[in-house]
Design a protein that fits this description.
nine-stranded mixed β-sheet; 360 residues; UDP-N-acetylmuramoyl-L-alanine:D-glutamate ligase; single chain; alpha/beta; binds pseudouridine-5'-monophosphate; Ribokinase-like; transferase; binds adenosine-5'-diphosphate; four-stranded mixed β-sheet; DNA binding; metal ion binding
Length: 360
């Protein structure tokens, strides 16, 4: 797509009923030149027809992991090295996929770029993600690979004991692969990435000049380090306490350390920082405003997916121009809904449920 075509497409995206004359005035081109570019955009498949209806209007793009989550919870404590009766569940997961699913449930147009294996698990993951309302046309099934699996074992109180991720196919999301599925990157209102992406792929993305605001999820302490060279390119970052300490290079020992930590992130170029503090709530910071939100009193059914639902709430609030305190409350409500559900994502999530919850 040429620069002029990009200009025209983004003006049409803002106002699909815009006239060719107005397009010409906005872009400094003659009406004839505009008509020519519109014809080319239609030919290339970006415009569907009269009225300039955009093909696949994209609000949010998510690039990240798509996993099968297998979770085991024993009924009682036991000895290490022994097996125990309990429940084992299998649900769709993966940080990027979870965020995309939650965003679709919150009512947004969202496309997920991800990689699975050419196997039954991959088919089920794509099907479940599509049923939740996500555009799955950019999830590729790679032959010769198994779909990614995240295996977690909780204790009888539902706290995470240990988890293992087996995600080699995720490495297939190479710069070349991403280049092929992101010609329209500049059209989305936000790009959400997770650190399941390799360092080379993150480097490719962060060096692009057509990035919309980037929301980054650290995924885990082991993977958070991948973001360190790119903090100046990130609009919104959501680390938990451990991940924030690791990136900051100092340990957050108490509440009193949070403002200094947030300042450091803002100095690196982050506009919005949200540190998830587990059962201690959520710390939110923009350069001129900070808030420490106390936790909601809830009964936790499963800890998995809370941070991902929180991230979806952050994107949702940003698209809706919410002030910081509302943003934190909405995002925390999304996280709590995930925590109250047995499984990674709560199908009861919607913009209405969240509004009712924060106004209750
Ligand atoms: N036990 C809990 N009770 C109440 N709220 C919780 C609890 N655990 C987490 N939360 C809420 O969910 C958010 C995300 O959870 P957390 O486990 O910190 O996410 P992450 O996946 O980022 O580590 C927290 O910031 C907090 O608001
Ligand atoms: O290295 C990774 N670990 C874990 C996940 C995903 O993170 C979710 C659970 O993490 P949390 O409890 O932090 O929300 C699961 O869906 C799991 O598949 C992932 O994408 N990559």
């Amino acid at each position: 797509m040429t620069e002029k075509e990009k200009l025209i497409l983004s003006a049409i995206r803002q106002n699909p009923l815009i006239s060719q004359k107005e397009l010409g005035q906005q872009s400094g081109m003659s009406r004839e030149a505009v008509a020519h570019h519109i014809m080319n955009l239609t030919r290339k498949g970006f415009i569907r027809g009269k009225g300039y209806l955009l093909n696949n209007p994209l609000e949010v793009l998510v690039i990240g992991g798509c996993n099968l989550d297998i979770q085991g919870i024993p009924l009682q404590h036991g000895q290490a090295g022994d097996s125990l009766p309990g429940t084992v569940t299998m649900t769709p997961g993966g940080v990027g996929r979870n965020i995309a699913e939650n965003l679709a449930r919150l009512g947004h147009q969202v496309r997920l770029i991800s990689a699975v294996g050419e196997d039954d698990a991959g088919k089920q993951l794509i099907q479940a993600t599509r049923s939740a309302g996500v555009d799955t046309s950019s999830i590729k099934a790679f032959s010769g690979f198994r779909s990614p699996v995240y295996l977690s074992v909780l204790d009888p109180e539902h706290e995470l004991l240990q988890a293992i991720n087996d995600m080699s196919v995720t490495e297939q999301m190479t710069p070349e692969f991403l280049a092929g599925c992101t010609p329209d990157l500049h059209l989305s209102q936000a790009l959400i990435i997770d650190t399941n992406l390799s360092e080379a792929t993150l480097t490719y993305l962060f060096q692009r000049q057509d990035l919309p605001p980037v929301f980054a999820d650290c995924v885990s302490a082991a993977k958070a380090e991948r973001l360190k060279p790119w903090l100046h390119r990130i609009h919104t970052l959501k680390p938990n306490r451990m991940e924030a300490s690791l990136l900051w290079g100092q340990e957050i020992q108490s509440e009193a350390d949070l403002p200094a930590c947030a300042n450091w992130f803002h100095e690196q170029g982050i506009s919005q920082l949200f540190i998830s503090l587990g059962e201690e709530g959520l710390y939110a910071s923009r350069s001129d405003e900070q808030v420490l939100l106390p936790p909601e009193q809830i009964t936790v059914a499963s800890v998995a997916g809370a941070g991902d639902a929180l991230m979806a709430g952050l994107v949702h609030s940003w698209i809706n121009h919410q002030p910081l305190v509302n943003t934190a409350r909405i995002a925390q409500a999304c996280a709590c809904l995930a925590l109250e559900h047995h499984g990674t994502n709560n199908p009861a999530l919607s913009a209405e449920t969240i509004e009712q919850r924060i106004n209750a």
